[in-house]
Structure formats: C-alpha cells, structure tokens
Amino acid sequence: MKVKQTTDFFKMKQMEEKIAMVTAYDYPSAKLAEEAGVDMILVGDSLGMVVLGYDSTIPVTVSDMVHHTKAVKRGAKNTFIVTDLPFMSYHLGRDEALKNSACIIQEGGAHAVKLEGGAEVADKIAALTEAGIPVMAHIGLTPQKVGIFGGYKVQGKTAAAAKKLLEDAKACEQAGAFAVVLECVPRQLAEEVTASLTIPTIGIGAGRAVDGQVLVFHDLVRFGSERVAKFVKQFADADTVMRNGLTQYVQEVKNRLFPEEKHTYTMKSEELAVLYG
Ligand code: KIV
Ligand code: NA
Fold it and tell me: Which cofactor does it need (predicted)?
C-alpha cells in the first residue's frame, strides 16, 4: 500500500471518509497498527507516560521522540507517521522549532510533526510549513500545559473558552497546519470547529462530529493503562492476556513443566560417548 499524503487527508474530509489514527511507540505496535489499516500513526509524547512511566509528558526529549520514531518507522513503512514535538522543543524560537523538527523528520523518519497550541504557536506552524514540514496542530486539552491547567480537564466548556478555541483552530489552519487534533472538548464545539475548517479535525474525547479519531495505543488495547479517561474505549484486553501468559510461565518453571522436550536441543549419543570417553 502507498503511504498516504497530507492531500489524501483533505480528500478524506471532503469525501466524509473518517480518518483512523492511533499512537505507536515501537516496532511491534507500529506493525500491528499498519496491519489493522490505520490511516496515520502518531508517535505521541504520551510515550513518556505509557511506555516510560513518567507522571506527565513534560520529561520527554527530542532524542526520545527520534528514538521511538525510528522503531515505529521500521514497523510501519507504508503508513504516514506524525511525531510529537515534545515539551519546550518549539517555544524558544522558530530556529529551535525548525532544528528539532528537522531531527524528527531526517533522523527519525516521520512525515510530519505535531505541536500543541493555537494562535500562540502560529508563527512556528508557519515557519515549519514554509520549510516544507507538514504540521499537525493540537488544541483543547494540551497535556504539555498540565501545570497551567491543573490537571487533565475538559476544555472549551464556556462560551468564551469555546470562542477562543475556534479562533485558535482557524489560526492553525491559516498558518498552514494540515490537520488539527481536538482533545477533550464538548462535541458541539468539535462539530463547529470541524465545519469551520477545510483541514481535517482529529478528535480524542471530542465526539463523533470530527473528521477522524485518535487514541493512545495502550488505552485502546488495555495494556498497562490502569485508569483511562471517559473518552477511551478499550477494544481489547491485552493486560489480561499477557498477565495470564506470564503467570502460567512462572508456574510451569517452578513446577518443572517448562521447557518440554519439544523446546529442547539434544546431542547425538556418539558425540556424548566421545565427550565422556
Ligand atoms: O501524545 C499523544 O498520544 C497525543 C494524542 C493523545 C493526541 O498527543
Ligand atoms: Na502528545
């Protein structure tokens, strides 16, 4: 299959074909995502929480993102890959944003970068787009601002906040973003934003009236995610499957049931005779 392009995502919006996106952080998760037929993979900085065990996405670095993007790329050679610009990798100025995005694209192999923010990062979106780097914006609940929000909460619930969010979405489109993630916003607002933009909206906790959906891989398959947000649907239970397998392994080792003959190598008796004389 051919790798989709940003123009394919515009067409999908026009044709009202939903875009299915999921995060992936390594070779096997990327391979599974591609085999399942997702339209785009996000190497999200959520990797800090779901695979590295941090409390937030704040400690994640550009080199973490490059490292994981490389693995994802090897697992999903035919899928459009978007990689998050992590905390403070695009705030220090356009040059910094360009340099870090170049790393992610050239070294990591991503097709596009994602950054959090609306009007306040429009200059960075424009600089990256001008340099030929496709940018996905991310507004609503932006986890890199958890320290300001004071937790992971629904955004855009008041008329004033909703108006600001709509303006942010338009600013992202105007600056050249090819798509925008709407995280944790009321469905009515997501619908309004989607209708107001020509670029696709990708929702997470934004209801159905958006152009596509994204979920965190580990939330979707229930792998290590103890508590999940209201907007998550767990489509599988990998935790239970894996825990059962591991528990049985421990028991079989203790009870001398594993390994069996079929898992074992042997030497010919002639060789043994030589060995022991
Ligand atoms: O890092 C991430 O997984 C994300 C998605 C939740 C959109 O940014
Ligand atoms: Na992210």
Answer: Mg(2+)
Q: Are residues 38 and 115 in the same domain?
A: yes
Model confidence at 150: pLDDT above 90? no
Residue 151 pLDDT: 85
Query: 104 and 82 in contact (C-beta within 8 Å)?
Result: no
> Between the CA of residue 42 and those of 69, 85, 262, what are the distances in Å?
9, 11, 41
Which residue positions form the known binding site for 3-methyl-2-oxobutanoate? 45-46, 84, 114
Average pLDDT of the chain is 97
Annotated binding site: 45-46, 84, 114, 116
Is residue 138 located within the same domain as residue 246?
no
* Residue bearing the CA closest to ligand 1, atom 8: 44
* 46 Cα nearest atom in ligand 1: 1
Distance CA 38, CA 18 (A): 11
Catalytic, 16? Answer no
Within a domain: 117: yes
Looking at the CA of 24, which ligand is closest? 1
> Mean pLDDT over residues 228-249, rounded?
97
Instruction: Quote the longest CA-to-CA distance of the chain.
Output: 90
> Cα separation of 161 and 163, whole Å?
5
Q: Are 173 and 268 part of one and the same domain?
A: no
Best residue among 56, 84, 146 to mutate for probing ligand 1, ranked by most atoms within 8 Å of CB: 84
The closest of 60, 135, 59 to 97, measured between CA atoms, is 135
Residue 210 belongs to some domain of the structure: yes
Complex-level ipTM:
0.99
User: Dihedral through CA 206, CA 209, CA 210, CA 212, nearest 10?
Assistant: 100
How many CB atoms within 10 Å of residue 102? 14
Active-site residue among 120, 183, 252, 261?
183
3-state secondary structure of 105: helix
